[in-house]
Amino acid sequence: MRKTIFDTDTASDDAIALMLALDYFEVLGVTIVAGNVKFENEVSNALFTLEYLSRPDIPVYLGAQRPLLGQWRTVEEVHGKNGFGDWEYPSPLKKPESEFAADAIIRLSKEYEGELEILAVSPLTNIALAYLKDPKIINRIRKIWIMGGAFTRGNTTEIAEFNFWVDPEAAQIVLNAGFDITIVPWEIAEESATITDEEWNKIEDINTKRSEFFIKVNRVLREYSKSVGSRGSVHPDSLTVTIAYDNSVAIEKVSKYVNVELCSRSRGAMLIDWYGLNKRRPNAEVVIKADSQKFKKYLFDSLSKA
Prior knowledge:
CATH architecture: Alpha-Beta Complex
InterPro entries: I/U_nuclsd_hydro_CS, Inosine/uridine_hydrolase_dom, IUN_hydrolase, Ribo_hydro-like
Number of strands: 11
Structural class: alpha/beta
Largest sheet: 9 strands, mixed
Order of helices and strands: EHEHEHHEHEHHEHEHHEHEEEH
GO molecular function, one term: hydrolase activity, hydrolyzing N-glycosyl compounds
Keywords: Glycosidase, Hydrolase
Radius of gyration: 18 Å
Protein name: Purine-specific ribonucleoside hydrolase
Distance between the termini: 21 Å
Number of domains: 1
Domain Inosine/uridine-preferring nucleoside hydrolase: 5-297
């Protein structure tokens, strides 16, 4: 199995994405970063998820508790007060490691040089910090899969997707560092990874420990998504992990130079040089269409496991 680090601001869909990652990758560690909800809730959610899925052996590393610059806000209205749909789950027994997340990323990149991939479904602060401390890491990381950015329909501002908006400086650093990167933007998930009411009911009917987990952690996410016009709960992180595992889920991709805006109301906007206007070499592969049916088959297969 391919070796990976799962970098997360653990809330609703992050937990389902982690479940998928555990099915399809050898997860060497989970690194936590500031983002969706209060940091202590993100940590607890990650620890509980690993216990719930019978993988308490996987280490959890605490990372950046704020973005590199500027201010951000958490989004409990999207994920629930604790980030897990207000599910009052038992306190996890598992404890996080003492090693800082960026240091763990650097160490693992040396231990698994040329093999290690990163599933980055969160703001990119931890990865930026690892690169700033050790720029040669770009030669050791095989691939970074990023859920981030929006073409035109921002889910946090009119133009910005949440992960890029939380820490655009970190996103800019990572995008321009020289890593092999694939980006799954927000709209692709909205189009291909939305769980409709009918599909939600089917997940309830699966009646496994995993399907129950899905329903509980995503309950508030579903309500919020529908309140802002989506057809159901949207699962960008899970789609990103699935594309990382099976690249054929990404039906159409383009290689372009991608950057991030740092200023004013457009802060966090993803800038794609569609026509090569600045003569810069492409630095990322961007998914522009995904196979919804194939993604959902992977999801339902995973949720159906005992």
